Amino acid sequence: MVVYRMTEAEKQLADLIWEHEPLGSGQLVQLAAEHMNWKKSTTYTVLKKLCTNDLFQNENSVVSSKISADEYTRLLGEAYLEQNYDGSLPDFVAAFIHKKKISKAEVEELERMIAEYKGTE
Known about the structure:
The protein is built from six helices and three strands, in the order αβααββααα.
């Protein structure tokens, strides 16, 4: 699956939407002005791009997400693994720990996550 990678500006607006959704488009314009000093036209331009890429929707002047922030992050991670490690999580972990020593607490957390996963199979 190809995941649309948001620009920094798009991510800022997406975070506002995820935090406050559902919200009226006028309320979104106000929040973007307060948090990012954006004009109405900038907000609508960026929102349109997010909607075009099927991440959000603006129906009847109500803005909401089509995908949660967690789901978006998960999809980006999966795409990264696929593109860089042929989808192999063990290969990614091996490459990561080869360059950076991980702490005992991190090892224990990984072991806990694996044990939890094994319990759900």
